[in-house]
Every structure is written in structure tokens, then in C-alpha cells.
TrEMBL record:
Subunit and interaction comment: Tightly associated with the cellulose synthase catalytic subunit.
Any Pfam family the entry gives: BcsB
NCBIfam families: PRK11114.1-1
Regions crossing the membrane: 735-756
Gene source species: Comamonas resistens
Lipid bilayer topology: Single-pass membrane protein
Protein name in UniProt: Cyclic di-GMP-binding protein
Keywords, sorted A to Z: c-di-GMP, Cell inner membrane, Cell membrane, Cellulose biosynthesis, Membrane, Transmembrane, Transmembrane helix
Pathway: Glycan metabolism; bacterial cellulose biosynthesis
Length: 770
């Protein structure tokens, strides 16, 4: 039998031809599909893909990045949705379930929507008069041969409202594509070779925007050495996954039916590896699942735990030139320890950062269309502890250019951050030379576009750890009247790549505990991107839920920094004294070792099996009050009292408090009443909607709800100079500030008075001598 083709070697559409042989005349039934029966030998011989796993995927336009309904306006306009297909999967069938509305003022015979996939026309959609203005649902089968790795589903709207001369931008010309529209795909898994060169595939694929779910397999899931190596691999996958989130289900001595990572030493390895010869060096091996050849296993091995850790670190650091089915790590040179705040994904405070450095492609800074009303989104992740008190703002040097026309003076450029509007600038006309904001551009940009620049400051209080800078152009098309005789000019607008954000001069100082900083950026642990100042404490007998929460937390921190953090210390509760001079991430379901009970006076809540003790919660923390809270606003010790509650319901909490082992160090505790409740934490850490609700020093997680509170007093961490720190804290105490001013004034008065008396005495002495 001829070898099975590899997707990486032939076009996607060609593989789809093979997959089409599996389709039935009923297009595989777009309703719920029944699991296929086991293929016969004859079927396998005729079609090698018939025996491979397949899955059903339903994704909405909202999940594909369309945040709101797609509005198409004017005589001609268009919008698109991007769809990607994993490298190891083949589209066998596709069904678009489209929800849309057309303007009731359209002429049915002249108005329609063209639907295209990768510039191939799928269907032209028009409606009778009685269906205009009413939401419509339409199911459109799509030929799977049209799909490639990266796909663009484009909607082109053509609308007319009168048979006579019409205004090309009349308000009655619109179509709305709902972001509830969905795409149903049947995906067949493709066989991959046992080659390490494919990494990070199939465990991570940048084409897949779903949560990265990779099972970890151990012989003994309680072995701390193997768990430490697993943390390095989890940090590597977290760095790659970024916004997608991670899950790492744990399996002990059994293999799941999906791509997995296996950890083994010569003395502790799963049963399916017992027949393999022992290894003498740290080893990375790609192999097929014993029962499902299309499923891949990445086996991380070592003679002992030290070698296992070396193999995991080599993978995480990308130090090995991987190829072939198996490789040994004979030598590994670790990089120097990272300096504070040098995470690759964080804007540096050492120099201005160009906007071109923050986007993946220069085209992300450009817009085009016949009437521009679009937004350029630029990610800007900053250290969450930037001290912005009494600062004018974050300087942004913005250079932009656009195609001018006779109505440019009616256009504007609006600047927002995190969906909070900051300021709008009117766009000047091409012949307006009154503005002093013009810049001379290189001849390369002499394309008839108007060029301008603006210097302004983003209000500091709007800037958090993870930000989106939104630059919106509103540029109307030229109005030629109802009877236009020329085609409207395509408009273009662009942000110059040399525009920059300047964080120089900002210091680091933050009130703690701050669960918002932890949930969004992993702070304070990510202050050092390699986690070299972090200790992670597990129970003496960790459960699978404890270990999964630990792995998810490590992956989440690496996603925030863009670097695999492998230098953290992993220990159990009995070794807590070793964590004295570090920040501590404490994970415990039910406080089985009594560590949280020992620190009960410092923490806002204590949860053990069947019982929870908490300070009486007087108010929930809002994002705005947390932002402007000063030390004088924080609760005082003992002011809220205690309450002890008993019950059997699951409850999970994330708590923050100052380390009882050393002042200035922080503890973040992931705690729950039991393993079921602990699952809410590691799922919550990968859920952006829940992360946005975490703040203060206490966050309860119950089912789909997150409630946050500020219970205990705050303390500060950072590096402000003494005079700035004194002035900041005096500013929070007006009476003390007034007294300090009076004392300073009296002191200066006495000094001046003494100096004048001394000067007068010298003069009198001189006259007497004369």
C-alpha cells in the first residue's frame, strides 16, 4: 500500500479530494452525526483516512474574532471573517449557518450579498421584498476542497434603494451579518510522521484559536521531580498559546485517546514504556499511540529526575535543534537569569517602543475602503505596577496619513484604550496648512496621502497590565450628489510604523495584594520573566486537581510574559521555610496540611473541607474603587470581624496576602473546599470574562460567578525614591501633610532668621572695628 500523504507536503485542497470519498450523498447529515462504524479492511485499503479519528467543530463568528455584528454600508462594501484549520486536520464537510438582515429600503432585484471563500464565489444571496428588514437564517453547504490552512470568508454587499440617481452612502443602504452566525465543520485527523521537527505540532497549532488542551501522563502523578519537569513543559506550551488559555488533564499510568506528553524516568515510567530500553541521557522522543497510530506522544525521559528536568528545560528553552523521532540532550547551557521587568511581551521602560513592534504584520496598521469607519487595534501589555500617580499620562507619539478629499475636514481620528474613549482629532483637509502638526515624510510615502502627527498622553489610570490601544479613523467618502458620474475613490489610512509609546520615567510601585495584577499578568511572580523569584508550594500529597491547577497557573504566567518560566522552585508544604525570600504561589484543596490554618490571621478567608472561615465581607471591590484606593481607604486589622460557616457545597477562592515569612514578599493562594471546586480555579484562570472580575485580595469562584473583595490592609512593593514615596503617602493624609508643611515653613523661617541675625551681627562688628 502506498504511504499516506502528509498535509505539509501537498496542498490542502488535494487532501480534501481524498476526504470527499467519505462524504455521503446527504452531505454527511448536517444535523448531529452518528459515530462512524469501524472501517473494514477493504475500506481502509481504498481510503487510508477512513480509519482516522474525526471530530465535529461548531464555531461562531464571535469566537472567530468578530466582536459585534458586521455592518456593511453604502452601494458597495465588504467585511470578512478569518478561519484557520489545524495542520493535522482535514475539512471533510462544512456548513455555514448564516444569520443576517438586509435593509427594508433595498430594491430586491438590484441588491444582494456575495459570499466568497478564498475568493471563490459560494453563493449570491438576495431576498424578496417581504423578507427585507427581518432577520433571516440561511444554511449554506461549502465545498470542503476550498479550505486551506488559512481561509477568508468574505461578504460583499451591493445595495440600491432607487431606480433613479442615488447617493452612494445613503443611510438606507446597509446589511447586517450577525456574529451569532456559525460554521459547522467535520474535521478528519491527518497522520503525522514521528518527527520532532514538527514541534510544537500537534500539541499546539497557531492556526487553532481554541484552548490548548494537552494531557500529561505520569507513572506517579505525586512525584515532585516529574511534576517540576511537567511545569517546564507547561510553561513552554503557555508561552505559545498566549490568549487561548491552557488545560493539562493528568493521567496516571494510562493513555488518553489524544495527543499527550509523557514523563518518565528509568525507575518510574508508565506501563506502556516498560518494554522500551532504559535511557542514559536526557531524551525527547516522538512516537505514535500504541492503539491509535494517528495520535502522537511526546515522551520526555531521563535516567533520573535530574535528567528528566534537563530534557524538559531543553524543550522549553528551544535549545535543541530537534529532528528525527528521538534525540538526546548531551549538554544544556542555561541562559543568565532574567532582570526585572524584561518580559518579551511587556513594553520596556528603557526606550520608546515603536507601534510596529507591537503588531505581527505592518498591514495591521492600515485601513482601506470607500468610506472608512474602522479601528486599528494594537496590543500593548505593560508591567502592572507602573507608578502613574501624579503623572500627566503615558506619552504616545502618533504619526498617521490618509487619503485626502474634499470632505476630509469632517473626518476624525479617535483614540481609545481598553474601550475607554480618550480623545478625537479632526483630520485636516489636503490644502489646510494652518496646522503646526504636519510632518515631513520620506519620499517613499509621497502617494497623495495627507500626513499628520499628534503628541498626546494616554491617561495613566486607564492603563493596566494587558491593554488594547484602539485608533479609529472616521473618513467620509466624497459626496458627488445623487447623480455621480465617476467611481468613488478608494480611501486609505495608516498609522506610521515609527509612531511610539514612551514609558521612560515611570517607576514601579503598587499596592498589594492585587489579584487583578495576578490574574491579568501573573504579578508579582512575573516581575522576573523566568520566575526565578517564585516558589510554588503544593500539598505534601498533591491530588490531580492540585497538580492541574499548578500547571495551568505556570502556563498562564508564561503566556503573560512570552517566555518559558523554568526557574521557579517547586516544593511541598513541609518545605515552606525554603520559600522565605521568594514570592509564594500556594495551591491546596481543603488545606490538608494545615498551612493556611497556621497563617489564618493573615489571610482573608480559610477554606477547609466542609467549613470556611472568613472576615465579614462588607463590600465588593469595583474596578474603579480599586484603581483609586489609597492606604487610608483600606480596612484596618480586625475591623471586619470573623465568621465561620459550615456546609458541603463546593467553594473555591483565590486569596492574596503579605508573606508571613518575610515582609515585602507576597503570597497568592489557590484554595478550594475539594478537588471538584479546585477545577473552577484552573478553568477560571483560562477564562477572560472571569479574569476581568478578579481583584482586591479575595475572589470567590462559584459555578459561573466570580465575586471579589478587599478585606485586609494593603502594603506596597516597588522602588520609589524616598522623597517621592514620602510625598505620595503624605498626600493620602491631608492633616499630616498640613502639619508637615507648617513644620517645614517654621524650620525655613528659623533658618532665614538665624542667617539674617548672623549677617547683621557681622556688619555691626565691622562698624565697631572701624
Amino acid at each position: 500500500m502506498s504511504p499516506i500523504p502528509n498535509k505539509s507536503n501537498i496542498p490542502h485542497w488535494a487532501l480534501a479530494v481524498i476526504g470527499l470519498t467519505l462524504l455521503t450523498p446527504a452531505v454527511c447529515g448536517f444535523a448531529q452525526e452518528q459515530p462512524p462504524s469501524a472501517p473494514t479492511a477493504a475500506a481502509l485499503a481504498a481510503n487510508p483516512l477512513a480509519g482516522l479519528p474525526r471530530r465535529e467543530l461548531t464555531t461562531t463568528f464571535q469566537q472567530l474574532g468578530q466582536g459585534s455584528s458586521m455592518m456593511l454600508r453604502g452601494v458597495e462594501s465588504e467585511g470578512s471573517v478569518n478561519i484557520s484549520v489545524r495542520r493535522d486536520e482535514l475539512v471533510e464537510s462544512a456548513l455555514l449557518r448564516l444569520t443576517f438582515t438586509l435593509s427594508p429600503s433595498l430594491i430586491p432585484s438590484l441588491s444582494h450579498i456575495k459570499l466568497l471563500l478564498n475568493e471563490e464565489l459560494l453563493q449570491t444571496i438576495s431576498l424578496p421584498k417581504e423578507q427585507l428588514g427581518v432577520p433571516q437564517k440561511l444554511e449554506i453547504p461549502i465545498d470542503p476542497r476550498l479550505f486551506t490552512d488559512y481561509n477568508r470568508l468574505r461578504f460583499q454587499f451591493v445595495g440600491h434603494y432607487t431606480m433613479d440617481c442615488e447617493m452612494p452612502n445613503h443611510t438606507s443602504l446597509w446589511a447586517s451579518i450577525s456574529n451569532d452566525s456559525q460554521l459547522d465543520l467535520t474535521l478528519r485527523q491527518l497522520p503525522l510522521s514521528d518527527d520532532l521537527e514538527l514541534l510544537p505540532a500537534p500539541f499546539f497549532d497557531s492556526r487553532d484559536n481554541q484552548i490548548v488542551n494537552v494531557p500529561f501522563v505520569f507513572a506517579d502523578a505525586k512525584d515532585m521531580g516529574q511534576l517540576k519537569a511537567a511545569g517546564s513543559v507547561a510553561s513552554w506550551l503557555g508561552m505559545l498559546s498566549g490568549y487561548r488559555g491552557n488545560r493539562f488533564p493528568l493521567f496516571e499510568n494510562q493513555l488518553p485517546e489524544r495527543n499527550s506528553v509523557v514523563f518518565a524516568t528509568n525507575d518510574h515510567r508508565p506501563d506502556f514504556l516498560k518494554e522500551q530500553p532504559p535511557v542514559a541521557q536526557p531524551t525527547l522522543t516522538m512516537m505514535s499511540h500504541p492503539e491509535h497510530p494517528a495520535i502522537k506522544l511526546l515522551v520526555v525521559q531521563g535516567k533520573d529526575n535530574a535528567q528528566l528536568q534537563q530534557a524538559a528545560d531543553a524543550l522549553a528553552l528551544g535549545k535543541a535543534a530537534l529532528s528525527g523521532s528521538s534525540m538526546q540532550v548531551t549538554k544544556l547551557e542555561y541562559p543568565e537569569k532574567r532582570k526585572p521587568y524584561d518580559a518579551p511581551r511587556w513594553l520596556t521602560t528603557k526606550r520608546p517602543v515603536l507601534l510596529s513592534e507591537l503588531v505581527s504584520n505592518p498591514s495591521d496598521l492600515q485601513l482601506r475602503g470607500y468610506a472608512l469607519n474602522n479601528t486599528i487595534n494594537i496590543p500593548a501589555r505593560m508591567a502592572p505596577d507602573l507608578f502613574s500617580w501624579n503623572a500627566r499620562g503615558v506619552p504616545l507619539q502618533l504619526n498617521y496619513r490618509y487619503t485626502p478629499n474634499s470632505v476630509s475636514q469632517h473626518g476624525s481620528l479617535s483614540v481609545s484604550i481598553n474601550n475607554q474613549f480618550i480623545k478625537a482629532y479632526p483630520l485636516r483637509a489636503a490644502d489646510d496648512d494652518k496646522s503646526g502638526k504636519s510632518t515631513i515624510m520620506l519620499p517613499l510615502f509621497e502617494d497623495g496621502s495627507t500626513q499628520a502627527s499628534s503628541d498626546f498622553r494616554i491617561p495613566s489610570f486607564l492603563v493596566g497590565g494587558d491593554n488594547q490601544l484602539q485608533l479609529g479613523f472616521q473618513l467620509p467618502a466624497t459626496d458627488l450628489g445623487q447623480c455621480r458620474s465617476t467611481q468613488p475613490t478608494e480611501l486609505r489610512a495608516a498609522i506610521d510604523p515609527e509612531s511610539n509609546i514612551d514609558l521612560r520615567g515611570f517607576r514601579h510601585y503598587l499596592p498589594m495584594p492585587n489579584l487583578a495584577a495576578y490574574a491579568n499578568s501573573g504579578y508579582p511572580f512575573t516581575k522576573y520573566a523566568d520566575l526565578s523569584q517564585t516558589s510554588i508550594v503544593l500539598p505534601n500529597q498533591p491530588t490531580a486537581a492540585d497538580a492541574e491547577a499548578y500547571l495551568t497557573a505556570v502556563a498562564r504566567m508564561s503566556a503573560a510574559t512570552g517566555l518559558a518560566g523554568i526557574r521557579f522552585n517547586l516544593m511541598n508544604a513541609s518545605q515552606i521555610e525554603k520559600a522565605r525570600d521568594t514570592d509564594i504561589l500556594l495551591i491546596s484543596a481543603g488545606d490538608k496540611d494545615g498551612l493556611l490554618q497556621k497563617w489564618s490571621q493573615d489571610i482573608p478567608t480559610l477554606i477547609v473541607a466542609g467549613k470556611r472561615t472568613t472576615h465579614l465581607l462588607e463590600r465588593a471591590v469595583s474596578s474603579l474603587s480599586e484603581l483609586f484606593q489609597h492606604a487610608s481607604d483600606a480596612p484596618t486589622p480586625g475591623s471586619s470581624g470573623l465568621a465561620t460557616l459550615e456546609g458541603k457545597g463546593p467553594l473555591a477562592a483565590i486569596v492574596g496576602f503579605e508573606s508571613p515569612l518575610q515582609k515585602g514578599r507576597s503570597v497568592v493562594g489557590l484554595t478550594a473546599s475539594d478537588d471538584i471546586a479546585m477545577a473552577q480555579i484552573y478553568r477560571g484562570l483560562s477564562d477572560s470574562s472571569k479574569i476581568s472580575a478578579m481583584r482586591g485580595d479575595l475572589s470567590f469562584l462559584r459555578s459561573e460567578q466570580v465575586e471579589s473583595f478587599r478585606v485586609n490592609p494593603i502594603y506596597y512593593v516597588g522602588d520609589l525614591p524616598w522623597w517621592q514615596r514620602m510625598w505620595f503617602h503624605l498626600h493620602n493624609h491631608p492633616v499630616a501633610l498640613a502639619l508637615a508643611g507648617i513644620v517645614t515653613g517654621l524650620l525655613l523661617t528659623f533658618l532665614v532668621y538665624g542667617a539674617l541675625r548672623s549677617l547683621a551681627a557681622r556688619r555691626l562688628g565691622g562698624k565697631n572695628n572701624a
